[in-house]
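User: My instructor asked us to take a sequence, write out its structure as tokens, and then describe one feature of it. I'm not sure where to start. Here is the sequence I was given:
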Amino acid sequence: QTRGDVSRAKKMLREAPDIVRELLRRIAANTLGYLRSQFEGGASVIQLFDTWATELSDAEFREFELPAIQSILEGLAAHDAPKILFAKGSAKHLDSLAESGADVVSIDSATDLAQARAAFDCSGRKIAVQGNVAPEVLLQSENEICEAVACAIAKTGGFGHILNLGHGILPNTPVRNAQAFVQAARAC
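Assistant: Let's start with the prediction itself. The structure tokens for your sequence are:
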């Protein structure tokens, strides 16, 4: 499969769903073992990344991906430490993410924080949100960085929210801009 081309994997979802489920079950079991060893080694938090979630419809995510994520997070229940889940394309999966068992759900920059906060508040569980300032904001002026930080915090009221980027920091981000982001967060 070519990077970025998920057509063969999507075809497999349709033509061999049982094989996909078994493959995801095995991946989840191995991931669980790895994460348990991380906790045993002293990790105080874990984060699962699903950067391909954006390629799935919510029905596909719910049928294939969600059970694997739930089995991993349920398997870590004995570890009293935060479990964070990041799913790129999270806007279309908010209800499923609320059912994942994660303590914190990282929200990408294309997902509205207020919408995510509302969806998680309706879940009956306390789920914090993390994110979702666009990484490109850190390439702008200090004033624009401060405005983006204030906007993100306002959308959640600052409660149950870990201010962060909606994805990784860009390699060409000036250090002073990353510092401005942290300073703006402290000032809010």
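For the description part of your assignment, you could build on this observation: Helices lie at 7-15, 17-40, 58-75, 94-98, 113-121, 142-156, 175-187. Try explaining in your own words what that tells you about the chain.
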